[in-house]
Amino acid sequence: MSNVDVVVTGLGATTPLGGDVASTWDAMLAGRSGVGRLTLDWADQLTVKIGAQLKVDPSEVIDRVRMRRLDRSEAIALIAAKQAWADSGLEDAGLDKERLAVSFGSGIGGALTLLNQDDILEESGQRKVSPHTVPMLMPNGPAAWVGIELQARAGVHAMASACATGAEAMSLALDIIRSGRADVVVAGGTEAVIHPLPYAGFANMRAMSTRNDEPEKASRPWDKGRDGFVFGEGAGAIVLERADHAKARGARIYARLAGAGITSDGFDIVQPDPECKGGIRAMSKAIRDAGLTGADIVHVNAHATSTPAGDMGEIIGIKAAIGTHPVITSTKSMSGHLLGAAGALESIATILAIRDSVVPPTINLDDPDDKLDLDVAAHKARQLDIPAAMNNSFGFGGHNVALVFTRP
Amino acid sequence: MATREEITSGLAEILEEVAGVNPDDVAEGKSFTDDLDVDSLSMVEVVVAAEEKFGVKIPDNEVQNLKTVGDAVNYIEANH
């Protein structure tokens, strides 16, 4: 437990459900799916032909010339971060930029640029390769662009922990503010690699749903018919701020980021520990870090990606670390799996669940797994008083991150 | 053979495409970096596009001498 309180003062996102936080949240509460048939011609060649593509293309928001030097993952990171920054009201608050840091990661990074420029190299030779290639594909690119846009001068950090990246970004931001190194951190995750190569790789791992004829029903965490995750793209950003700093400027405060727990499995590069031991330790650490007990956590936004192996381990973990009482949900049933952005988007959903006293639904849970013995907000959003909630994220490599948010 | 005016307007098209420069701002006396705000990476793109458009080779050691639009027009006129 730290004696420095950290609060959420700004939110931003661009997702398969909407071009901003409000439209994304409305879609979640209405139980809408962001999954569809891919609108890209190469999809016909692959076994997986569905995905969760952005509702609003970044080219509708950022001008054409600027887009020439931004990887898609960088462009949407900028869009989400600028929304969160505007939402925080910090633009006019006279913040010393030497007290502003960035913590922003991606699971896969600028692979779209790497692959597209490799095509150009093969077809047309070196001379035609864009001179912007390196800053577009480097994994710290999204964080760096956000830092440049907001003139952050207290350090720009880019983490990579696969599907736990967005949540790890929040955890690092919490550490930075608690340590006194910055007063404000813009934290988030971004992912935009809808391309045949990552699709083929994930498909050949048999990790992705092939429910091509019913895309809206493909992401179905904990359902007996689940057959893999649905690949998505998007970005989420959160402005985290020292509580006394936020209060002094009269900021609107959404929630507290009360605690975080990070562990690693030390077990397997892709398989989750079937007993969720690392997940249990992460959840327990986060609860202790928040100064709470399991009984205080009334809602969990679960990692649950709709894979046969992964979904049920987390159920074991939640019961062990928290208990059988929390109302759980997987918003991936609607958004698809945003990989490195998942932890950021799901943190936003957890924060808004606390604010609005409502748990967004898990759609498509028509025939629950026999071992599912926790209360899921299935099909419809559920009203619930939520003083404290948890967001879980787990990533390839055995990364486990749990975050505890509470009312301000 | 393109005239100087044709080369200038061809460069203006490239500058608009690559760097968002308003074609009305492009004139022989304008400096790429100081007046038109073309940075070094965008300049590389301008050179590659100009080579293709005008059928010239612009070696890297020549690019540093092309400070203004007029310098580029002179080089292209003499070498294409």
UniProtKB/TrEMBL annotation, chain A:
Protein's UniProt keywords contain Kinase: no
EC identifiers of the protein: 2.3.1.179
Natural source organism: Paractinoplanes bogorensis
Name of the protein: 3-oxoacyl-[acyl-carrier-protein] synthase 2
Stored Pfam families: ketoacyl-synt, Ketoacyl-synt_C
InterPro entries: 3-oxoacyl-ACP_synth-2, Beta-ketoacyl_synthase, Ketoacyl_synth_C, Ketoacyl_synth_N, PKS_Beta-ketoAc_synthase_dom, Thiolase-like
Keyword vocabulary terms for this entry: Acyltransferase, Fatty acid biosynthesis, Fatty acid metabolism, Lipid biosynthesis, Lipid metabolism, Transferase
Stated role: Involved in the type II fatty acid elongation cycle. Catalyzes the elongation of a wide range of acyl-ACP by the addition of two carbons from malonyl-ACP to an acyl acceptor. Can efficiently catalyze the conversion of palmitoleoyl-ACP (cis-hexadec-9-enoyl-ACP) to cis-vaccenoyl-ACP (cis-octadec-11-enoyl-ACP), an essential step in the thermal regulation of fatty acid composition.
Pathway: Lipid metabolism; fatty acid biosynthesis
Family designation: Belongs to the thiolase-like superfamily. Beta-ketoacyl-ACP synthases family.
Record PANTHER family: 3-OXOACYL-[ACYL-CARRIER-PROTEIN] SYNTHASE, MITOCHONDRIAL, POLYKETIDE SYNTHASE-RELATED
Reactions accelerated catalytically: (9Z)-hexadecenoyl-[ACP] + malonyl-[ACP] + H(+) = 3-oxo-(11Z)-octadecenoyl-[ACP] + holo-[ACP] + CO2; a fatty acyl-[ACP] + malonyl-[ACP] + H(+) = a 3-oxoacyl-[ACP] + holo-[ACP] + CO2
NCBIfam families per record: fabF, PRK07314.1
Positions of the Ketosynthase family 3 (KS3) domain: 3-407
GO molecular function: 3-oxoacyl-[acyl-carrier-protein] synthase activity
Automatic annotation (TrEMBL), chain B:
UniProt-listed Pfam families: PP-binding
Keywords: Cytoplasm, Fatty acid biosynthesis, Fatty acid metabolism, Lipid biosynthesis, Lipid metabolism, Phosphopantetheine, Phosphoprotein
Residues annotated as domain Carrier: 5-80
PROSITE patterns, per the entry: CARRIER (PS50075)
Location(s), subcellular: Cytoplasm
Domain of life: Bacteria
Pathway: Lipid metabolism; fatty acid biosynthesis
PTM note: 4'-phosphopantetheine is transferred from CoA to a specific serine of apo-ACP by AcpS. This modification is essential for activity because fatty acids are bound in thioester linkage to the sulfhydryl of the prosthetic group.
Residues that bear O-(pantetheine 4'-phosphoryl)serine: S40
Keyword Phosphoprotein: yes
Major localisation: cytoplasm
Cited Gene3D superfamilies: ACP-like
Keyword Endoplasmic reticulum: no
Purpose: Carrier of the growing fatty acid chain in fatty acid biosynthesis.
HAMAP family documented for this protein: Acyl_carrier (MF_01217)
Family statement: Belongs to the acyl carrier protein (ACP) family.
Protein name: Acyl carrier protein
